[in-house]
Structure formats: C-alpha cells, structure tokens
C-alpha cells in the first residue's frame, strides 16, 4: 500500500514538474502574423468617422481613457486616451495601453499595420497574443483606416502604463487557453455597411460595439465565453468587488429577451437617454452619441437573432 502511494506521489510530482516547465516555456510566445495593409490618412471624413468609432461606437475611451477623468468622460468630454486603468480580475492585473501618439509611451512608434494587426488579428506590437478585451476583429478595412487616422490626429501624451501582472492562475491561462491570438471569424468587409439595415446592425453588434463581449456569459478565470451568444452575461464590477452585473439577454426571445420590452422608437430613446442605473458598466455615455440610424440598425439586427431562452434576472446583485 505504502509503495503504491509513494509511486503515485512520484508520478504526480513528475507530472506537476512537467506542467510547470510547460507553463514557464509558454510565457513569451510570439506570433508571426503579417500586418494588414492599412495606412492612416489625414482625410477629414476618415478622421471624423474614426472619432465616431473611437468615442462612441467602440468606446475605446471606456478602457483606454485617463482613469482620473471618469466624471468628465461621463459628461461627454473627449478625455485623453492615456491608458492606465487597472482591471483586477482572477488571472491578475491588466492595464489598457496608452493609445495617444506619444512615441515613447504610446502608439507613436507603432506602424499603422501594427495597430491594425492588434485590432484585427489580436497580435500585439511585439508579436504576443493580446488578451480578449477588444472583440472587434471584424472591423472593415475602411473603419480600421478611420480609427488609426483618428488616433494619429490626437495630441501625444507622455504617460507610462504599468506592465500587466499575471498571477499563478494567470500564467497558466496565458500558457493554455489564451496562448493563441484570436482573429476574425470571417473575412472582414473592405467597406463598412451603413444605414438602418440588418446588415449594418449585425456589423455594429458583432464587430464594432463589443455588445456580445458583455451580453454573453464569460468565465472570468479564463476569459473564455461559456454562455449562448448574446443570451445574457455575468460580469464583475471594476469598482465594487461585491457587485455582479447581469447584462440582459439580447436575443429575440419574447419571454426572456430584453428587446421584447422595447418598440424600435423606445429602443432609440433608451440609447439616447444614457445611463439610468448608476455605475452600470455598459458604455451608455458613449452610446448616447450614436446616430439614430445606427441604433435602428442594431435593433433590427437583434430582432433577427434566433431566440435563446435565458432569464438573467435583476441588472445587478450585491454579494453579502
Ligand atoms: C474593454 C476594454 C477595451 C476596449 C473597449 C478597448 N481596448 Fe484596447 N486594450 C485593452 C487592453 C486590456 C489592452 C492590453 C492587451 C494586452 O496587452 O494583451 C489593450 C491594448 C490595445 C492596444 C495595444 C496593442 C499592443 O500592441 O500592445 C491598442 C493599439 C489598442 N488597445 C487600441 C484600442 C482601440 C483603438 C480601441 C477602440 C477601437 C480599443 N483599444 C478598445 C482594453 C480595451
Ligand atoms: C461593458 C459591457 C457592456 C457592453 C459593451 C454593452 N452592454 Fe448592454 N448592458 C450591460 C449591462 C451591465 C447592462 C445592465 C445594466 C444597465 O441596464 O445599464 C446592460 C443593459 C443593456 C440593455 C437593457 C437596458 C434597459 O434599460 O433595459 C440593452 C438593451 C443593452 N444593454 C444593449 C446593448 C447593446 C445593443 C450593446 C452594443 C451596442 C451593449 N448593450 C453593449 C453591459 C454592456
């Protein structure tokens, strides 16, 4: 009995040692993905579309904005995108980067192709696989040009952002489920759709506005999606460790889907009303500025998403 136990322990020790070596060997993986052929322009129409994407549709500022200026951002001010906000989640502490054109601390030294590759292919400037925070891999060529052109047009701000801090769980996740970069599910369009159409709504919901990243249940230990697409999520509050948010089901289910409670006009009014529940992580202050035809497009697309029965309950719950 003792011998068997000792033997088992030895096998276990070897397995643990081998796994530790495997994890350690995969902390600095690099991926050789060719940068998309995207070049920024100084064209004012492209920059205006870029501002609309960065400041409203894709709400880059919600994560990359100066974290000391949350109130100004809430009031609709275009705050500097200096990075520095701290996401403290089970795998560690993570910091969105400085995306102003400063060459030492921001994106000034990145090529247009490197920025495009980060957004489209999930590969960082140094070739690492990026964490799954930016679910907008399907951005069109035209919109990538717009975003990068707008980023280049901002004033540079010198601001050093701390390096990510992976804890024990984080190093395992980094070596396993998050080891590979995630690119687009289908070839992104060259030009983006527009108008109050289902096609444009699908593009905005699936490729631009991060809707499904929050409205689908995710495992916050591993970053992986575990629930049915758009059928409702569950997410921590970045400011209140006791609070859990439940982004509602956005599929067309008439009983548990939130859209059943809105006519199209009410949905437009809801988006233009901004944040109603204080502290809600949904980027309502950015979405308040969405063009009416885009909100209509989003509504029409969501109404076409096959129903999934999933009740999410109240918007948030506070743990004792
Ligand atoms: C939900 C939060 C979130 C949103 C929204 C977001 N980002 Fe990020 N971004 C991050 C985080 C976190 C990182 C760091 C990722 C990493 O290092 O693995 C990052 C990294 C980056 C990088 C650096 C890539 C590199 O090479 O290191 C760029 C460029 C970037 N984001 C641009 C944008 C732009 C442009 C938008 C809007 C279109 C945007 N981000 C929206 C969280 C976000
Ligand atoms: C950062 C996470 C996040 C993103 C991104 C996000 N949501 Fe939400 N959403 C939430 C949370 C949390 C709630 C519940 C709290 C609230 O109502 O503000 C919510 C609530 C809603 C509601 C119910 C509002 C009400 O008053 O009944 C709708 C509709 C909605 N989201 C649609 C969308 C759409 C469409 C998008 C993309 C354009 C989107 N959300 C993007 C987190 C998010």
Automatic annotation (TrEMBL):
Q: Which Pfam families match?
A: Cytochrom_C
Domain Cytochrome c residues, every copy: 45-155, 196-306
Give yes or no: UniProt keyword Iron. yes
Its domain of life reads: Bacteria
User: Which GO molecular function, any one, fits this protein according to its record?
Assistant: electron transfer activity
Metal-binding in keyword set: yes
> Could you tell me which InterPro entries the record lists for this protein?
Cyt_c-like_dom, Cyt_c-like_dom_sf, Cytochrome_c-type_DH
Query: What are the UniProt keywords, alphabetically?
Result: Heme, Iron, Metal-binding
- Which PANTHER family does the UniProt record give? ALCOHOL DEHYDROGENASE CYTOCHROME C SUBUNIT (PTHR35008:SF8), BLL4482 PROTEIN-RELATED (PTHR35008)
Q: What is this protein called?
A: Cytochrome C
Q: List the source organism.
A: Eiseniibacteriota bacterium
């Amino acid at each position: 009995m003792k011998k068997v136990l000792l033997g088992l322990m030895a096998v276990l020790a070897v397995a643990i040692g081998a796994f530790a070596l495997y994890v350690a060997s995969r902390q600095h993986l690099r991926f050789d993905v060719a940068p998309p052929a995207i070049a920024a322009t100084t064209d004012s129409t492209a920059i205006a579309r870029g501002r609309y994407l960065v400041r409203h549709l894709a709400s880059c500022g919600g994560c990359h904005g100066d974290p000391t200026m949350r109130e100004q951002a809430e009031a609709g001010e275009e705050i500097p995108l200096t990075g520095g906000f701290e996401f403290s989640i089970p795998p560690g502490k993570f910091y969105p980067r400085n995306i102003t054109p400063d060459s030492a601390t921001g994106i000034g030294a990145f090529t247009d192709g490197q920025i495009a590759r980060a957004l489209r292919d999930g590969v960082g400037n140094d070739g690492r696989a990026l964490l799954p925070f930016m679910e907008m891999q399907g951005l069109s060529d035209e919109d990538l040009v717009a975003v990068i052109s707008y980023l280049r047009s901002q004033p540079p701000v010198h601001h050093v952002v701390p390096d990510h801090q992976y804890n024990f769980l984080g190093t395992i996740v980094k070596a396993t489920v998050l080891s590979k970069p995630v690119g687009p599910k289908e070839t992104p369009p060259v030009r983006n759709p527009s108008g109050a159409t289902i096609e444009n709504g699908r593009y905005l919901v699936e490729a631009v506005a991060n809707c499904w990243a929050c409205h689908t249940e995710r495992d916050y230990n591993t970053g992986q999606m575990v629930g049915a697409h758009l059928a409702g999520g569950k997410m921590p509050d970045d400011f209140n460790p006791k609070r859990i948010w439940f982004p509602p089901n956005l599929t067309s289910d008439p009983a548990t889907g939130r859209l059943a409670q809105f006519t199209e006009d009410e949905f437009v009014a809801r988006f233009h009303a901004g944040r109603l529940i204080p502290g809600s992580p949904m980027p309502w202050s950015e979405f308040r500025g969405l063009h009416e035809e885009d909100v209509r497009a989003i509504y029409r697309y969501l109404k076409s998403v096959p129903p999934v029965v999933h009740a999410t309950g109240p918007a948030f719950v506070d743990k004792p």
